[in-house]
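Appendix B. Raw example, untouched.
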Amino acid sequence: MAVMMQAFYWDCPIKEEKEGEWWNHLAEKAPELGKVGFNAFWLPPICKAAEARSPGYDPYDYFDLGDFDQKGSVKTLYGNRAELENLIKILRQNNIGAYADMVINHNSGADEEEVNPIDGEKRWTKFNPKSGRFPRDWNCFHPSRYERVMIEGENFAGFPHLCHRNPRVYTAMFEYARMVIEELDFDGFRFDFAKGYGAWIIGLLAKYRYERDGKEFSPFVVGEYWSGPDDIGAWIDGVRSVTDNQIAAFDFPLRYKLKDMCDTLQYDLRNLTNEGTVAASRPFNAVTFVDNHDMGGNEIVNDKNLAYSFILMNEGYPCVFWYDYYNLGLARPGTPNGIDALIDAHHRYAGGEAIILHADPDLYILQRGGFEGKVGCIYVLNNLGDQWSGTSVKTQWPNQKFRPVAWDGHDIAHPDERTTDGQGNAEFPAPPRGYAVYAPIFE
């Protein structure tokens, strides 16, 4: 499985003094991140928002990518279309794909208020974007003549919500998606706030027969459905009922387990073995993550690389957060103790079936069996805060030597090599409040 980077955090261009220059900044970083092993960037919203310094989750003009003087600026907070196109070109040169953040449910920044004749309420729903594409009025939003139900999902921040059953809206969303894939060369979509509208529209946007270089192209699709495992599973099924494309969802249930593991004293690691996550029940539909731009005030505070070790050694499509990687310094390039080493281990070894070999309150040991060139590995997670810990487990490899390839914890002394006996048994330890990854050595 590949590794994704969320290539932004909230207000990152402002905080890093790169307003209007974020696309250029990412282009500069692309070569080094490609060498690390990142396969895709999830980019922030690309279109003009309601305000000049907005991160983009309040879209105003879907077809202004930073080239029209409106809402207080010409560029978006991140740049303009030419810079975005150049970024995607450079990503492609470094074998990195791009996923667009699609905010297709709520809008903001309307030019006029209107009275909606259906309920008599006055709202900001008159939009006259300078791109000239997708002007809209009250009938493009809920409540609308095109749908008796007031809204298909949850509301967000009091913004007007698009009614996708209106043919004008439906057509505009397809035009926007086609621009993203066919003109800008994105490889997929991340759908924001998927609880706010029907799963059917995502299914239809996913199944459209996009063309690239004269060939049919199927985009990657992941949704932000912030809920429990049953609700997320039902949402995935709802999207899949409309399309046979591969659909993924962010694994929020797993993320909260990982926060508890990192930030709760005496957390029982057996909680990581049970059901209740997307990765456990639908590993091929799970995008796993540790933190993101929406977790302000609820971030993981302690020993965050424990969580990264878990998602990078387990099943699912792992997503690394830019802020953790760069601003918190968790990459630790050139050492075996950070995200870079875990990404390398992920690509080289962490393939095949994930089998839990041991789990108790303080020790968790996982075997990846190997698949398609990935030889497999042993992953050990130690929750004890004051001592190395391990136990003997039965692996699939008899008489096999293992070497440590990645580790971290409250003691980062180099773990020893290990060799299994004729039945595949050996003891694999990890540092206190840490992890270790052991890879088989084939000579």
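End of appendix B.
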